[in-house]
Amino acid sequence: MEDKREISLKRAKELHNEIADYLEFKEQYISDVSEKRDLISLKHKRELLEYFGGTDEDWDDYHWQLKNRIGSVSVLTKFMKLSESQLKMFEEVSKKYRWAVTPYYLSLMDYSDMNYPINLLGLPTNAELNNQGELDPMAEEYTNPAACITRRYPNRLIINVTSSCAAFCRHCQRRRRIGECDRIESEDRINEAIKYIEDNKEIRDVLITGGDPLMLPDEMLESIIKKVRAIEHVEIVRIGTRVPATMPQRITKKLTDMLKKYHPLFINIQFDHPGELTKEAVKACEMLADAGIPLGNQMVFLKGINNDKYIVQLLNEGLLKARVRPYYIFHPKQVQGTKHFEIKVSEGLKIMEYLRGHTSGLAIPQYILNAPEGLGKIPLLPNYIEENDEYHVKLKTWEGKEVNIEY
Ligand SMILES: *Cc1c(COP(=O)(O)O)cnc(C)c1O
Ligand code: SF4
């Protein structure tokens, strides 16, 4: 009979071996990628500040970041060398879709490798000219019972308060509306939406989104949150934003002091790649968390960016360190101009299956596909149930071991 301790030690060794490849990947990522990228970003920051004639304080001021957004090749080529064909591509894509990034987001990019994930997230590519896919796969027009409201569920809904964003993500599923204009909803339309929520007493959860609601000035954002909060039957308010990733300077003490007056308030962010989890981004998340705001992350699976089990694990473990709980991973929709980011459901499921067991349950979000025609979110789960009838159930563990339970 083997000693119990001996058995445990043997199992522990087996478990360690199970994670050895990831540990090696992580160590290599930190020394070869993160640390080098930090230095490169710092160099880019210096160059950008010099070009725009700014100071370190300017860099930390989101007004400065917004004012100096880079959205034309004439400025971009001051930093990145673009080939003839790349220049032509920028010209072609610009006719169809707008592009712009903050100096901060540009500083995270690789100036010589257009396939680096942050470049792919922020700068257009030829692939956007592919016309396959739909323009409005979410059919938002058919779930719009009042101004700027999307309602697909019995007791919760969305208010879209603006079409403006700090940077225009190349995978944006709302590109039909975003990036064409920076339009903030008028007070009349916001009031119409508020009135709708007041009149529908079953609505207990209001999600303020856009575009990016943190593009609104503090006062305007506060006036909306205040009105929503004042509705007695609204129990929780949520904000969806990507600025902690694309313009973390937006998260100021003034903002967090304002937000924390309206608890229970939740914020969901969108980080898509570990390269976005910079010191500045982590600090922005910490400030929000310190204001008592529970934070979630909504990643989108994107080919060439995060369709890799180790990248997802690294991102999600990094998010937890920044006190952000991975909430959803979205399956990419078939939106025109984003075909190149598409992955198959089976590929996403494999990554989800890997995560279970290999990392904290807290680092495992739900994998969601948004049903066409606004029918709502569908959770996609790896299959752990192999047989299931009145007398027994046959299951599979995270390692693929078979488990039988008889009733
Ligand atoms: C995603 C979404 C929500 C929020 O869904 P949760 O699963 O509660 O996070 C609400 N309304 C609409 C229209 C949505 O698309
Ligand atoms: S922040 Fe959201 S809405 Fe704005 S461009 Fe990115 S994905 Fe689209």
Secondary structure layout plus pairing:
Elements: H1 4-52, H2 56-59, H3 62-67, H4 73-76, H5 84-96, H6 103-107, H7 117-122, E1 149-150, E2 156-160, H8 187-199, E3 205-209, H9 218-229, E4 236-241, H10 243-246, H11 253-259, E5 265-269, H12 279-290, E6 295-300, H13 309-321, E7 324-330, H14 345-358, E8 366-371, E9 376-379, E10 385-388, E11 392-396, E12 402-406
Parallel strand pairs: 2-3, 3-4, 4-5, 5-6, 6-7, 7-8
Antiparallel strand pairs: 1-2, 8-9, 10-11, 11-12
The structure holds pyridoxal-5'-phosphate and iron/sulfur cluster.
Residues 165, 168-169, 172, 174, 178, 211-212, 242 line the site of iron/sulfur cluster.
Protein described:
The chain is α/β, with parallel strands linked by helices and 407 residues long. The protein is 40% helix and 15% strand. The chain contains 14 helices and twelve strands. The strands form two sheets. Strands 1-2-3-4-5-6-7-8-9 form a nine-stranded mixed sheet. A three-stranded antiparallel sheet has the order 10-11-12, with no helix packed on it. A hairpin with a 3-residue loop joins strand 10 (385-388) and strand 11 (392-396). The chain binds pyridoxal-5'-phosphate and iron/sulfur cluster (SF4).
